[in-house]
Amino acid sequence: MAFSRRYFFYGGLLAGAVPSQGFGSTPSLKALGYKSPNEKLNFAAIGSGGQGAGNIRAASPTENIVALCDVDDRRAAESFKAFPKASTHRDFRKMLDKEAANIDAVIIATPDHMHATAAMWCMERNKHVYVQKPLVRTIWEARQMRLAAAKYRVATQMGNQGYSNEGTRQCAEIIWNGDVGNVSEVHAWSDRPLWPQGLTSIPKDEPVPPTLDWDLWLGIADNRPFSAGGRTEPDRWGGYFYQPFNWRGFYDFGCGALGDMACHILGAPNMALHLSKRKIIGVECIKKEGVSPFMFPKASVIRFDFAAYDNMPPLKVFWYDGMKENPKIAGVPEGEWVGDPPSVRPPAGQAPQRGPAPRANGADFQSPGRVYNAAQFDALKAAGGELRFPTPNGSVFIGDKGLLTTGTYGEVTRLLPVEKMKDYKMPAPMLTRSPGHMRDFIRACKGGDPACSNFDVAAPFVEWMLLGVIALRHEGKLEYDPDKMRITNNNDANKLLKPTFRKGWEFHTVKA
Question: Which domains does the chain have, with CATH numbers?
């Protein structure tokens, strides 16, 4: 069976998402902010420290950085110093009011609860937006983001770098080629959370540091006192209590381990098995440890059940987080290297031996990524040095003809047992290859193809993933009607489909 590249990669999602004349450099499209490939974009950033700093660095080699915004001067200090010509701000609303005419595209790397508000304010001003994963905190916001991108005809990208990975595309092509048969189960896992979760009490109130605007940090969320958890120095991950990193574990600000890593690790399954196009039958948290009234649990297992799609059978997807080691999966042979593969520490006096998955030269945060190398796998097994296994992250596809595994970002895709790869020939490419995740977005801003994780792709992906986030907070299976955007068997769970907004932080909604 022959398939077009665009059918599999974008499917029917391109319809209506691209202007009728395409993304060119015609005068009408230039008026919308599209530039020729040789022109530089003027980038701004909302959230300029941490992950935002990395995204800024990824854009800066070829584009202009003109405006930087962050509510935490200490956190953003490195970016402010690196780009002294850029204007600096604490409140993105004021930045947009002052600098809108000078901005083409905006990187948004705030805590999850502020993604949608910041992005919507940018898109309605016709700014292209690169928004960190998991895109948003609620399903309603995901739909609003998709509608806004279409209405304002801006280029978009969610920051799930694995979607640009070579291995993610190889995974899809191996499955579409029929090499593992009909896939009935996927198991995906992560060592996250690396930050605190499952706490049951909030430390006493403390003075807000002078470098932080706490009210702006809270944004749409209900007001509450600041606390650093009694810490005078950050923990090993750079956090105090709520910020600058530990917010991921709080219901009001983040999406837990699932929100942090599922957009990466479940990216290959989403692409290969068309999960965003399937009807989701039910979602249930089947195990959790360390529950809390205001935080996600310390560890959990979630089951997603999907209906059949086209010629693909019904599918069960299992998500495990808080893992200390790879899960034991029925049908996967003992001793197989699943997920991220090991590297080897050589005997004393020998030169270092790289693992089986060296990063490609010029890779942009593992995009286009690392690929399987049979010779290096053999070298690992033959080496007399010490195998060094990474933290547990990855996925396994279980088909009726075989097994397939990928790494955290979809990289190092390989059949299991790995000996099968010695004589295996990869299928002919069906999908276009990405120049790198940020490069992909920049190309779209300048008139190229839509970015690989544009909101027509990302929003449906995030919608089913966020049902798992809701399931973590309720007992029993959730049944979902996407046409009505309603959980049909749990009225309380429906309250989590849409956020509440503190006055002054609303955005203009877009009608379907």
Answer: 5-163+437-455 (3.40.50.720), 165-195+256-421 (3.30.360)
